[in-house]
Amino acid sequence: MDEFIQGFWVWAGTYWWLVFPLMGVAGGAAKSWERAAKRRHERRLETLRLKAEIKTAQLEARGHAKRVGPAIVDTRASVAPNTLLERLFAEHDEITARWLDYELDVAKLIAFPAMSDGRRPLVAAFLRAKKTADALRPPTADTSVTEQQVSEYLDAVGAYAVAFEIAEKDARRLRDSTFTEPERKRLDRAQQLLKVAVDESATQAERNLAYKRVRDELDGLILLSDDAVQVLEKQVARELPAQASTPSAANDDAASDPRHDPMPESEPRPERMPLRKDESL
Q1: Within its chain, how far is the Cα of 187 from the centroid?
Q2: How many helices (H) and strands (E) does the chain have?
Q3: What is the per-residue pLDDT for 25?
Q4: Do 55 and 93 belong together in one domain?
Q5: Spatial distance between the Cα atoms of 145 and 150, rounded to a whole number of angstroms
Q6: CA separation (Å) from 248 to 38, 239, 267?
Q7: Residue 183 and residue 221: Cα distance in Å, rounded?
Q8: CA-to-CA distance for 72 and 79, rounded, in angstroms?
Q9: Domain limits at 220?
Q10: Is the same domain home to 227 and 137?
Q11: Residue 179 φ then ψ, to 5°
Q12: In this predicted structure, what is the pLDDT of residue 98?
């Protein structure tokens, strides 16, 4: 042991200059560990925050269900069951419409891409809640259903609403932060080109070219659904205002004017003969 200690001090006396680079390496490692610990702490806080939001939303939904529940499941309630189902249908349809607004609006897809990413846990939870609510929804408000079926549908619509609110809030918080810097630049270009593609003041050729470039910029970044593509193509192919008044339309307007007295088709207008040099008007 004494020989080891003595050898160590001999080595340290010979290579004392290594202390400075080793201190730099140790300092860098300490800073890296500190940054990693900070990121882990931030992730834990974010997880706790989301869990708290989910818990709060669930409690609010349960409180809402307790307030509305007796009116639905109690056959002696003053409100008819079909009216109560219609209210649930309206809430169900409103949530679906808000979701489709993200799915079909390409501008929103570019601005909040996380909302259409089913790989994200919160979006996946929303899609599962949607599937459950759709499956439990009665065909019509007049359909004969049991109190248990109405209660289950009520809970499903409440969970559907909560899941959408949480997924939407998370998507608006993230925006394009999950993409790299080059990918964010492509998304920005796509957003600017999209404005040209749907601009009624642009020519059809300009809109077609902008639409093609939008698809190129989004390729590999955001997957557009077939319905979203169809909606966008209709916007791009929309007739320009300047083309709205065609020659046939102008003729129809003139024909409807009582001051306009066209020649009958059986009696064509005579052509005016050219004047000779010795004739005058």
Answers
A1: 14
A2: 10, 0
A3: 56
A4: yes
A5: 7
A6: 71, 16, 21
A7: 7
A8: 8
A9: 179-240
A10: no
A11: -100, 160
A12: 95
